[in-house]
Write a structure and sequence with these properties.
2 domains, 8 helices, elongated
């Protein structure tokens, strides 16, 4: 199997928080190892070799930041060797999820979140007004549960917005900063159906 294709078909980003076994001591700093099961780890290193547990997202972030490669065991009957270039196929969604998880864990502020994801492509349900085009335009919003303002749901990929957009309304790709420049009175909720969802208040940008 083409390793880039594996990266996309295995949907690593949907499995971002799944724990994997990682060798504690390794001399090869240019390559990271990730074992989807303890059994696959012990098959290579034996039952007496200690390991640590990290999430898939932590490993992808390490590969991204260090520009290294990654071997994945325990998913297929053979080892899948993934290069840094293969991991780049997950961008810019990968960087978006990393930032959202950091915000969820309170490792970065709301302002820092905007700085990190403000220019990343997102998709919203609706269209910007177009005088020449005419016809449908507008946005879908949801009310904040506690605060007195509406929010525009945005998504990092087509699959997620399609699952949310049950009415099959038009969708538009944009960025959070562009969306806020046009609809400044609304808040934004990023990936409302995910564990790492985030609300950006109207006054932040």
């Amino acid at each position: 199997m083409n390793n880039g294709l594996f990266i996309q078909q295995f949907e690593l980003l949907d499995r971002w928080n799944i724990p994997v076994a990682i060798p504690i001591n390794t001399d090869d700093k240019e390559k990271n190892e990730m074992y989807a099961t303890v059994e696959s780890y012990e098959k290579k290193y034996g039952k007496n070799e200690k390991y640590e547990i990290k999430s898939i997202l932590e490993m992808l972030k390490k590969v991204r930041d260090n520009k290294t490669d990654l071997s994945i065991d325990g998913v297929l009957p053979f080892t899948v060797d993934v290069t840094y270039e293969d991991i780049q196929l997950l961008e810019p969604e990968l960087s978006g999820i990393i930032s959202l998880v950091e915000y969820m864990k309170e490792e970065i502020s709301e302002e820092e979140l905007i700085e990190k994801i403000g220019e990343i492509p997102v998709i919203f349900t609706g269209e910007y007004p177009d005088i020449e085009k005419g016809g449908y335009f507008g946005i879908h919003t949801v009310k904040h549960i506690k605060e007195d303002y509406e929010m525009i749901p945005v998504f990092l990929n087509k699959k997620n917005v399609e699952e949310y957009n049950k009415g099959n309304h038009p969708t538009t790709e944009t960025t959070i900063k562009e969306l806020r420049n046009f609809y400044s009175k609304y808040g934004i909720i990023v990936e409302p159906q995910k564990e790492y969802w985030a609300v950006i208040k109207p006054e932040v940008i």
